Amino acid sequence: MPASLREKLKELRKKKGYSLDELARLSGASKSYLWELENREERKPSAEKLVEIARVLDTTTDYLVDDKASFDDNQVKEAFFRKFNKLDDDTKGRVMDMIETWSRKK
Question: What is the pTM of this model?
Fold first, then answer.
């Protein structure tokens, strides 16, 4: 697994099938800013932009900035719950109903 921020960004972006233009549009960062993050070793992102980039890439900021971090089950859960918490109450209820139905199927 890649260790640096730039390697992780590039890998996650490509896994999602996003071009730099698309990631820029979705995250609110400029294409040139993202290019610098992916291609310059010493570039340090702002916290606000990193949060949005992580959100779009379904990961965590911890994973992106920690050279020793691996994307494990905890990061997957954190990314899921971040998305879940942004849902409206009706949609959250439907998701909870689906989970309840699935948990009874044993």
Answer: 0.66
